[in-house]
Each structure stands twice: as C-alpha cells, then as structure tokens.
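Lecture 7 notes: from sequence to structure.
We start with the chain below.
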Amino acid sequence: MASRDNLAKQYAKHSGVEVVQADMSDSHACKAIMEGVTACFLITPGFHPHETECGYNIIDAALSQPARQFKHLVYSSVIHPILRKLLNHDSKRYIEEYLIESGLPYTIVQPTTLMENLPIAKIIQEESPTHACLWNPETEFSFVSCRDIGAACANILAQREKHYYATYQLVGTPSPLSYEDAIAIVSKQLGKEVKLEQKTIEEGVVMFSDVLTRSQPTEIAPFATTQGIARMFTYYNGKGLLGNPNVLAMLLERKPLDYGAWVAVNVRKCRGENGGGEDGVDGASEDGAGETKGAGTNGLIQRSTGLGLR
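Predicted structure tokens for the same chain:
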C-alpha cells in the first residue's frame, strides 16, 4: 500500500484531517501544498539527490504565505549535521542555514539513530531470529525512539512560541550502545538468542536502497543515492553518532525511553498486553526494570516524503 494510502487510513478516524501529496522537488507543488498552512513539520527525503532543494522549496513556500499567517516551521534535521563526510547529514546542514536566515519562526530538531531501525516485531515473532547488521556491530551509537520524537515534536508544535529559534538534539539512550549491546538487551528480554549477521558495504547498499524504493518496486535508486548510502556505511564501520538525552527529557518532561524500555513496550504491544499502547509510555531501565509515565504519542512522525497533513 502506498504511503499516501497508509496515511489516509491512519488518520481516517480524525476529523478535519486531509492527506495531500506533492513533489517536494517542484517549487510550484510545494506552494500548493502549503497554501493556508499555519504550521509545518518538515521531514526532507533522506538520500534524495536534491534533498537540500526540497527543503528550500518548502521554506520558500512558507515565506510565500500572507504576512503573519504562517506561525511555525519545525524542521526534523539529523544529529550532527556538521558531519560533512555523511551526505545525508551535510544536505540538512544547508537546509538549517537557509531556515535560520529565512526570517520564519522555526524550531530545529536533530534526532539520532532510530531504535525502530531494528525490526523488533519480526524478531519477537521468529523462533530463531537473525538480524542483518549493515555496518560494524561494535560501533557505538546513541539511539532514540520514534515514540519519543513524536511526543517531543507534538509538544513543540502545541507550545509554539516557547520553542521559537531553538535547536534541539533528540537522544534517548543515556549511554552509547553498539548493536551488539542492543541485541544483547533484546535477547535478554525475549529469553532467546538473537544473532547478528554483518553484511558487506555492497550488500548493505542494495538492502538499504530496496527499503528506499519499496513503494515503487520498478524504481532503481540513482547513483547519488547509492553513493550516499555507501559513504554512510563506511563511516559507521569506524565512527558512530553520539549525543545526550537531557534535552529530550526536558521536552518530554520525563526520561526518554532507553533501549530496554523500548523493547519492553514493543513486546507488550505485540502480545496485546496493557502498557504497549500509544496514549502513555511505560519505561524501563536497560535491564527492563522500573517505570516512567509520560506524554502521549499522537504526534508520532511519519517519514513519508512529499506527504502532508492539514
């Protein structure tokens, strides 16, 4: 099912929500999708050869709105956009600069590596699961859950002026974790061994490209996209992305989900138990103990390029 259809189905129960599709690389289409919009949560298409221009187009479209109509643009960038070796980071650095100089009221959020990159539901369901790691599983990262990103961004949009002209790093885990560490947490909580299989860079590029184009099975990822992916995996083989969870805790008014808590929430959700829903977050320490109650996740972000809700 196409992303547009998925979004339309997801938001069908909410009155007054319209799903609109546009080509973000087309400045005229961006102006049409932004017509009458007062606030925008912008996610640009990662690894798109013209990601930077897509961001420029939406910012220009916001600027074209009548004076004082447009109130807030929240841009979902990436942790450490100054890392020029990573093309998907570098492209967002230019968008941040353009937004800062645009004169629009803005907030920039910079999420780190997503916990949801691990297909936890699939791993839970399999008897002897093996996860394909597309880079060195010993490299350490900071992680964040989509649940917490969504809750934080919902607060930012709702509170608006309080967050004008701020840049927020979004990190959930209190200390760096490698994928070996993460898989050990998963294995302990599930009570079964989850194995890791490291793929070559070439294999990783093919697998990642397939994910990017899965809504269009006949589409082939362009050269610029595959080169960006290859550079990312080369970098991740030696360097990770590290950050601090204090800012996200401030935005959520609670501790973010650590990796163990995220696994526990997903286990309960897959088993249909209480505590796995989206109206509250049950937290846990990395070994699965403890509880934290927090904001809802009705603002969970959708990484659907060129789609908008209004």
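Points to note: Residues 87-100 form the longest helix (14 residues). The domain at 3-309 is CATH 3.40.50.720 (Rossmann fold).
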